[in-house]
Amino acid sequence: MKDIQIMDPKEIIARRVSLEIRPKMLVNLGIGIPTLVSDHLDESMGVFFQSENGVVGLGHRPPEGMTDRHLTDAGGSFTSAVPGASIIDSAFSFGLIRGGHLDLTVLGGLQVDAQGHLANWMIPGVFVPGMGGAMDLVTGAKKVIVAMIHSAKGKSKIVQECNLPVTSQRRVDLIVTEKAVMQPRDDGLHLLETGPGISVAEVVADTTAQLIIEGDIPEMDLSRTT
Amino acid sequence: MHLAITTEEAVAMIPDGARVMLSGFMGVGTPDGLVRALAAAGKKDLTMIVNDAARPDTGVGPLVTAGCVRKFIGSHIGVNPVLQEKMHAGEIEVELVPQGTLVERIRAAGMGLGGVLTPTGLGTLVAEGKPTVEVEGKTYLLEPPLRADFALIAARSCDYVGNLTYMLSATNFNPIMALAGEVVIAEPEEIVPVGVIPPDAVKTPGVLVDHVIKRAA
Questions:
Q1: Nearest to residue A145, comparing CAs of A97, A114, A179, A184?
Q2: Does the annotation count A52 as an active-site position?
């Protein structure tokens, strides 16, 4: 594995999230940092990646000259399908998502709050991309992980209460940034791990939300990642 | 049996102000020929029901760019700055619908159901003003059916009965929208003789398809 001191923040996040994935899971990865997670998984795990547009068994991006305009991922980029892949229509695809068949979704966020509410679909009056499949994913997946850079423009994206419109009333299960792993529970937001080379004091200083800190907080163990 | 018509003949059937469903996901599986011809014909005040606005020059984007659209109903507009601009300027009304809810509302219309009960959107802006229903101890949002005057479908293959097949992720909304348009117009990549598409391979039965577009010579 690469020296963590020179590791890109996005790679730290992707590697840490990859540790949450178990063999044979059905997983949906959002656009951006979440997409990088699949780079750190052993193909022998038999994980199937699903995309909203109806691919079960997404593969890697094919080389130039081997693309097919009928085979794209949820970002509209060319993709491939692994042996054993299947194609479903949009209703079936969201049946998988909403019906409790999707083991894990990893999404980016604009804000997450201490109650575990995610906001990731609009900044009123500034930018309104729309929710796409995010509301269904957060509401329906068995497990929801938010994977994002800790701060934007110097401001913590982990806040006490979202002031942006939320994506779902469902509490997300885990928040992974380059500085911390956090978990919202009934009594508030727990700090579980710190990022490589980051102290607990630094995490607290860089986080607007109140963190619950119990005992010694370990550093992320990225040595097990591929 | 259908006699294939030209794209121009199809476009002439669609009046200004029509509610039009267009399939596609970021421009993949969108009937591009119909989009271009509708834009070129200068249609006005269309209500567009579509997954996403794609980019200004891909998917349904050209219809937005050409000023054909009055109302947009869909789930994502994040990579079409032209639509963002027209929305902020008040030129286009935008109704954002979660993607899974969008496809189920279309399916409900096509399947003769009075709506959809979904947990998606509860506790968010999407739920504002909508009734909720409790079933077996769980709360759901009641979302109404969504139908259109025209459903414009992009198919891989089509025969002269109108039977359609789709290809890979270009399938997306196509088979669902083919149920929910008053008039269904299919734009296939190829038209094949009846019998070439085996019954098991048909994804949309020809009985749902009103018109088939032939490729430009």
A1: A184
A2: yes
